[in-house]
Amino acid sequence: MTKPAAPKRHLPTSPFKAPVTPALKHFSVGDQVTHDMYGLGRVISVEEGIATLVDFGSTRMRILSPYAKMTKL
User: Whole-model pTM?
Assistant: First the structure.
């Protein structure tokens, strides 16, 4: 069994910008959302930090965190 690689640290003398970690998205039951693939929907269930269940009208989809393609309206 191997250890996972440690994240590389940013050196202050580096000419490159420090990597930016995106802010975590939080959704609540009843939030209206839009998804790049499925369109407009409403959150019907939340598994905190894991996934959300969204009703898009014609289908219900379980969208996994980090919700890259989903935005709260």
Answer: 0.70
